[in-house]
């Protein structure tokens, strides 16, 4: 699948409010392990560690970050979601940040394709 097609699929997903909302709510519920309606830093950090998202998605294997740097990176990610600074992420904050992140990914894929029309994902 080309990057432009991937960007289009992401855009369609974001614009399908019903599908996007259902997906975000499901993800939110899986992260809210204590079912209090909020995601704490500990809940999000645990998921980031367990999925090894920092190593696979952000390619930090090649950067060799220290434990302190990884913790700071997880805090930075959490802060992006915690828009009101309340030290907890509610569903609305989570949905807004997920939308922004997916738009950024789609835009990046579109730009990459524009730069290199033969690029594959």
Automatic annotation (TrEMBL):
SMART domains named in the record: EFh (SM00054)
GO molecular function, one term: calcium ion binding
A Pfam family assignment: EF-hand_7
Calcium is among the record's keywords: yes
Signal peptide (residue range): none
Segments forming a coiled coil: none
Keywords assigned by UniProt, alphabetized: Calcium
InterPro entries xrefs: EF-hand-dom_pair, EF_Hand_1_Ca_BS, EF_hand_dom
Protein name: EF-hand domain-containing protein
Native species: Dendrobium nobile
Lineage: Eukaryota, Viridiplantae, Streptophyta, Embryophyta, Tracheophyta
């Amino acid at each position: 699948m080309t990057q432009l097609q991937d960007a289009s699929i992401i855009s369609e997903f974001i614009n399908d409010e019903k599908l996007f909302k259902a997906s975000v709510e499901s993800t939110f519920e899986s992260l809210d392990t204590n079912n209090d309606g909020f995601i704490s830093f500990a809940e999000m950090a645990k998921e980031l560690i367990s999925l090894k998202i920092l190593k696979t998605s952000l390619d930090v294997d090649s950067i060799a970050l220290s434990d302190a740097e990884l913790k700071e990176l997880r805090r930075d990610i959490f802060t992006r979601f915690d828009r009101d600074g309340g030290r907890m992420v509610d569903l609305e904050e989570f949905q807004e940040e997920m939308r922004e992140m997916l738009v950024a990914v789609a835009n990046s894929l579109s730009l990459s394709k524009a730069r290199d029309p033969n690029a594959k994902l």
